[in-house]
Each structure stands twice: as C-alpha cells, then as structure tokens.
Write a structure and sequence with these properties.
With 61 residues, this protein is mainly alpha-helical. It has helices at 18-27, 33-57. It contains 2 helices and no strands.
C-alpha cells in the first residue's frame, strides 16, 4: 500500500507558510488608494449635510 508524502509546511501558529504570512504583512503596511478616495467622499458628504441642515434651519426651504 502506497502512502502519501507528508508536507511539513504547517507551523504551530496555523496552516500559513512563512512566505504567505510575510506577503500578507507587506500588504498591511499602509492604506489603499480606495480608502483615501472614500475618506474624501465621506468628508464632502458630512460637509454637505451641514450646509443643507444650516439652510433648513435658516428657513431656506
């Protein structure tokens, strides 16, 4: 009966190899460009909300 070879690439912290873990840590070093775009869109949305709320409070409806 033939047995399958055992791969010893699993360490005590889980099934991730060190190469995969290192690649994931390299990607987490900063925020993506999409984060900054959405941050700007959110800030513009909040400012727009306050402009509309101030206009409504002043009776501009």
């Amino acid at each position: 009966m033939a047995t399958l070879p055992i791969r010893h690439n699993i360490d005590a912290r889980g099934p991730w190899t060190t190469d995969v873990r290192r690649a994931m840590m390299d990607q987490q070093s900063g925020y993506s460009n999409l984060f900054y775009v959405m941050l700007i869109v959110g800030i513009i949305g909040v400012v727009g909300f306050f402009v509309v709320a101030a206009g409504a409070a002043a009776g501009g409806i």
